[in-house]
Design a protein that fits this description.
Keywords: Transferase. InterPro entries: Acyl_CoA_acyltransferase (IPR016181), GNAT_dom (IPR000182), Ribosomal_N-acetyltransferase (IPR051908). This is N-acetyltransferase. Helix content is 30%, strand content 29%. By secondary structure, the chain is α+β, with helices and mostly antiparallel strands. It has a single domain, classed as Gcn5-related N-acetyltransferase (GNAT) (Aminopeptidase), CATH 3.40.630.30. It is globular and about 45 Å long.
């Protein structure tokens, strides 16, 4: 079942949908922005498909296609990088270039945080490339704090209320 926000619909995909996205082969019911999926989505879908093949259905800790409610177009994705481990889970997200700059990532991220909290997660982790300022701002707006860095990435965490 989709989770709706003020402007978005987060659609938990299944394995068949994941394969269509990976193959850039929309089905008759798929409506995608012209620049969806982009390379970041393809990497995330690959991880989702591997996890699904190894461990079965990942929901609610799977991958969610981000769709705009205004036109129904898929414009990105957000998802968990596996199931929780000791109430900690890692997330990743991305938007097609045509959808960036509208606050969609923050809206989707805050919704996924609520899903995680409802299923007992207490800590969410994320990372960004050093030069991905937009993603760093998104994480900060959603309540994440930077907790570390190395030569390639900044690391962030958010603590969730139970």
């Amino acid at each position: 079942m989709d989770t709706r926000t003020a402007r978005l619909s987060l659609h938990p995909i299944d394995e068949l949908e994941g394969r269509r996205i990976r193959d850039r082969a929309p089905g008759t019911d798929d409506t995608w922005a012209a620049d969806y999926p982009f390379d970041g989505d393809l990497a995330a879908i690959g991880g989702f498909l591997r996890a699904t093949e190894q461990n079965g259905d990942q929901r609610p800790f799977g991958y969610y296609q981000i769709r705009r409610q205004s036109d129904g177009l898929a414009v990105g994705g957000i998802g968990f990088k596996g199931r929780p481990d000791d109430d900690v889970v890692e997330i990743g997200y991305g938007l097609a270039p045509s959808a960036r700059g509208n606050g969609y990532a923050t809206e989707a991220l805050m919704t996924v945080m609520q899903i995680a909290a409802a299923h007992g997660v207490t800590t969410i982790r994320a990372d960004t490339d050093l030069d991905n300022v937009a993603s760093q701002r998104t994480l900060a707006k959603a309540g994440f704090a930077q907790v570390g860095a190395d030569s390639e990435l900044y690391y962030f965490e958010a603590q969730l209320a139970r």
